[in-house]
Amino acid sequence: MSCELCHGSKVVQQPLGSYGFTFAPCPNCTNEIHAHYDQELERKLAYGEQKLA
Question: Distance between CA atoms of 4 and 26, rounded to whole angstroms?
């Protein structure tokens, strides 16, 4: 399944006025990665609390 914004390339082109483009990381893919790491961190913290109890 590929991203609708970058089609799996993880990079998006943004117009830079009328004379070119800039390239940036895909915000959809970046947000998904951060959400995944947040979930993993919460899971590890919960496991650590259970282990200490």
Answer: 10
List the one residue out of 3, 9, 2 whose CA is nearest residue 24: 9
Reported residue count of the chain is 53
**Those residues with Cβ within 8 angstroms of residue 44's Cβ, 6 or more apart along the chain or in another chain:** none
Q: pTM higher than 0.70 for the full model?
A: no
pLDDT of 12 reads 86
- Distance, in Å, from the CA atom of 38 to the CA atom of 34, rounded to the nearest integer, reads 6
Q: 1 versus 25: which is more confidently predicted?
A: 25
- 25 neighbors 13 (Cβ within 8 angstroms): no
